[in-house]
Structures are given as structure tokens and as C-alpha cells.
Design a protein that fits this description.
- By secondary structure, the protein is α+β, with helices and mostly antiparallel strands.
- 42% of the residues lie in helices and 21% in strands.
- The chain contains five helices and four strands.
């Protein structure tokens, strides 16, 4: 499977609560509404929790400030991913990008494509 990982920082004018509520309740349903159009199979939001614990990791490892969350989107394969390159797929991607401008700090976030290699699954 092909996966996009999006490490997100919120707009500085939004509180953590405002950011997470919008991301979950407004943006998430928008992504779901275009899932077939962009060929996506799965979408997950991971909202950052336990800020005190997260902050404790920084000095011991010399880390940068943590992200406010991570989005992961899966595609079955390159063919499914390529379906998003249709006119409808590009329109859907533009709609999502326009929405993201309102709550994501792009300059301090990052996005990249990955391929998963499962090492173990104890479930």
C-alpha cells in the first residue's frame, strides 16, 4: 500500500481545542466525501495528546517542537493513487487544500509519501 503522512501544526491563531475540533468535525467529513474520487482507501487523524509528556522528550533528545497531529491516507496501489489525477480528483484535492489553509500552518508542517513494510502485528 501507498501512504501519505502529513505531520501537521495548527495555525498559530487557533487553540489546540479549536484546531482539533475543526480538523475532526469539519475537515474529516470533507475528506470522506471525496475518498472515492481521489482513490483513497483509508484516512486516519492522530491528534496529539499528553503535552507534558511530549515536552519531556524534547530536551533529552534535542527534538524540535512536536506536531499537533498526523494525518495518514492510504491507497491500495499506484493505480488507485493515479485515479486522483482525474479532473474530479484535482478539483477534490484543491477543495481540501483550500480548506486546509484555514487551520494548518503549512510553513511548519510537512507531508511525504511512504510505502509500508509491516514488521509485526500482535493484534
Amino acid at each position: 500500500m501507498l501512504k501519505m503522512v502529513y505531520c501537521i501544526r495548527r495555525h498559530p491563531d487557533l487553540s489546540v481545542e479549536e484546531f482539533q475540533r475543526y480538523w475532526l468535525e469539519q475537515h474529516g467529513p470533507k475528506v470522506r466525501s471525496v475518498a472515492e474520487t481521489i482513490g483513497a482507501r483509508r484516512y486516519v487523524q492522530s491528534h496529539t495528546r499528553l503535552p507534558d509528556y511530549n515536552e519531556a522528550f524534547r530536551p533529552t533528545r534535542g527534538l524540535k517542537e512536536g506536531y499537533d497531529g498526523i494525518t495518514e491516507i492510504w491507497w491500495e496501489d499506484m493505480e488507485a493513487f493515479a485515479r486522483g489525477n482525474s479532473d474530479a480528483g484535482r478539483d477534490a484535492a484543491q477543495m481540501l487544500l483550500d480548506d486546509e489553509r484555514g487551520f494548518i500552518d503549512f510553513a511548519n508542517s510537512c507531508v511525504f509519501m511512504t510505502e509500508e513494510f509491516e514488521i509485526f502485528d500482535l493484534a
